[in-house]
Amino acid sequence: MTFECPAWPPDWPEIEAAALAAIRSGEWGQYHTMLAKSLQKRLASDLDCSKVRLCCSGTAALELALRCCQISTGDEVIVAAYDFPGNFRTVELLGAKPVLVDVTEWQNDAPVLSETPTGSPIPTTNEATQISGISPTLCPEQLSAAAGERVRAVVASHLHGSFAEMARLRQICDQHGWVLIEDACQAIGGRIQNQPVGSFGHMGTLSFGGSKLISAGSGGAILANDDRLAARLGGLLDRPGDTFPLAPLQAAVIGPQLDRLDELTLIRSRVARFLVRDLFPDLHGWVPLCDPAINPQETAVAEDRISHLPAYYKFAWLVPSNEARQQVIAAGLKLGLPLGEGFRSMSKSSSRRCRKPFPTPIADLLAEQLVVMDHRALLIGPEQFGALADALRELHRLTR
Ligand SMILES: *Cc1c(COP(=O)(O)O)cnc(C)c1O
After folding, report:
1. Which of the listed residues 83, 183, 222 should we mutate to test ligand 1's pocket, taking the one with most ligand atoms within 8 A of CB?
2. What is the pLDDT of residues 261-319, one digit of tens each?
3. 56 C-alpha vs ligand 1 centroid, how far in Å?
4. Contact present, 185 and 221 (Cβ < 8 Å)
C-alpha cells in the first residue's frame, strides 16, 4: 500500500496556455515586458504592498531587501537560529553579522518564552501538545534581549504552516528603529487577521523556486511597504538592464497559479488541520508543529475562518530522536510520502560568524528531530484523507 501524491509542478492546461501566449506575442524574447509589469502590479494588489519588484530568487530578494536597508560591514541582523540557511548566509555575504534568537514555544494559545533555556522544555508526548506547542518562527520575547547598537534589521520567516507574530515583531522593530523583513517564501497565500502575508514587514520576500507553492522553476519577488526603502530598489536593480531578472516566460506561468492560490491554500490548510486534530493525537511520540490558531484543543475553529489562513509549504512534526527521524524518512519515502528533514540550526556556527546572546534549545531540537512533508501531499480532496492517514499510521507503526 503506497500513497499517491498529486503531481508537482502542476500540469494545468492554463499554465501551458500562458506560456504559449508569451511565445506567440513575442514577449518571451523581450526586456521590460507588460507581462512582468502587470504581474508586479497584481502581486502588489493581491498582497497589499506598496511596491513589488520581480527578481531571480527568494534568496536574491532577501539580499536586495538588505541592500535597500544599506546593511554592510559591522552591522548586525537578527535572524532565527532555525530558518532557511540562505538567510544567514546572505547576511554574512553582505559583511554583516547574524544575531541568533530562538523560535517560539506557546502555551494555551499564548506564546511563552521557555523558562528553561538549557533544559528540554519540549513536549514529547501528544498529551503535552494539548497545552503547548512550537511555532518555528522568531520569538518576539527574545528580540529586545538580543538588541545591540549595531542591530539594523530583523528577518522573520513564516515556516512550516506557522506564522511569525508580525504585529508584535513590527511594534518592537519600530520601537528600536530596526527594519523588519518578512520572509514569505513559504507562505504566499496565507492571511493573518484578514491581511495577506507579505504586507506586515517594512520589506518582504517571495520565492517562485522549483519546490515552492507557486513555481516558475526559479524566481522571486521583493515586497516593499516603506517608500523610503522602496525608492532604493530601482538603483540596485536597474543598471540599466534588470540585474536580477525573472524571465518573461517565468512571469507568464505565475499568473495562472495566482488565480488558484486561494483555493489551494484552503485545501492544504484543511488537510493540515485534519492531520493535527484528527490523526496525530493517535500517533504517540509524534508532535506536529502548528500555529496556535489550530491548537487541537480549540474546538471552535470554524472551517471557514478564512481571515486566518495558514499556508503550508511543508507540514512538520517532531519525532523522538534524530535516529527515529532517519527511519521515518526512509520508510516514509517507500510508502510514497514526500518526506525530508527540516533545516539545520545555525547555533552550531562559531561565535566569530554570528552573535549568540542566549541558548536556542528549541531551534536546536527542531534541527535534530523535525520531519517535514512536502505540500504536494496536502493537495488532496476529502476522499483521499483516509489514504493519507493510513500511510502515516502505517509509517508510525513501522518505525515505533
Ligand atoms: C525557499 C526559501 C527561500 C529562498 O528561496 P529561493 O528562491 O530558493 O532562493 C527563502 N526563505 C525560505 C523560508 C524558503 O523556504
Report:
1. 183
2. 999 999 999 999 999 989 999 999 999 998 766 644 444 445 455 678 999 999 999 99
3. 11
4. no
Q: Is the CB of 209 under 6 A from ligand 1?
A: yes
Ligand 1 centroid–CA 283 distance in Å is 30
Asked whether 49 lines ligand 1 (CB < 6 A), one says no
CA of 337 from ligand 1 middle (Å) equals: 22
Q: Considering the chain, what is the average pLDDT of its residues?
A: 91
Ligand 1 and 207: CB distance under 6 A: yes
Q: Over the stretch 70-84, which tens digit does the pLDDT of each residue have?
A: 999 999 999 999 999
Strand order in the sheet with 151-157: 51-55, 220-224, 203-207, 179-183, 151-157, 76-80, 97-101
Of residues 374, 34, 68, the one with CA closest to residue 204: 68
pLDDT of 307 reads 77
Give, for ligand 1, the residue of 88, 212, 313, 315 to mutate: max count of ligand atoms closer than 8 Å to Cβ: 212
Q: In the CATH hierarchy, which fold is given to the domain comprising 13-399?
A: Aspartate Aminotransferase; domain 2 (3.40.640)
- Residue-level pLDDT at 108: 52
Residue keyed to cell 493535527: 276
Query: From the CB of 58, is ligand 1 less than 6 Å away?
Result: yes
Summarize pLDDT for 318-334 with one digit per residue, the tens.
Answer: 999 999 999 999 999 99
Per residue in 99-154, pLDDT tens? 999 998 877 544 443 333 333 344 433 443 344 688 899 999 999 999 999 999 99
Question: What pTM was estimated for this model as a whole?
Answer: 0.92
